[in-house]
Amino acid sequence: MTTDTDITPIGLLNDKVVLITGASRGIGAAAARLFAREGAKVVLTARSTDALERLVTEIRAGGGVADATPLDLADDASIRAAVDHVRQLHGRLDGAFNNGALPQRQVGPVDTTGEE
User: Fold this and answer.
1) Are 56 and 68 in contact (CB under 8 A)?
2) 3-state SS string over 41-98?
3) Assigned domain for 82 exists
4) N or C: which end of the chain has fewer CB within 10 A?
5) Model pLDDT for residues 62-112, shown as the tens digit of each residue
6) What is the CATH number of the domain that holds 46?
7) Residue 38 lies in a domain
8) How many domains does the chain fold into?
9) Gap between the Cα atoms of 40 and 103, Å rounded
């Protein structure tokens, strides 16, 4: 069995700035570890920052660049604040791994779904 720690990093994301939603556990935390190992500067988000801070410490201990900020995906102002925080830290945002989720009231194509 191969785990993500068995893979030799090739620097695929060197110096890219990536925002990761839902990064406090599971797939989001695994993505944060992988992206950081591949050279990305990761900014981790979730509603609670306790688990994020532990992950930031882990990534930094491994030589990666990581920060955390709270984010509530149901709150537009919270989303804007998280993106602004990334820009304050790194001057830009190159990509996002949108792993966080919330229940959808409307089902359909994204381009036909309103903000509310």
Assistant:
1) yes
2) EEEEEECCCHHHHHHHHHHHHCCCEEEEEECCCCCHHHHHHHHHHHHHHHCCCCEEEE
3) yes
4) N
5) 999 999 999 999 899 999 999 999 999 999 999 999 998 766 666 777 677
6) 3.40.50.720
7) yes
8) 1
9) 29
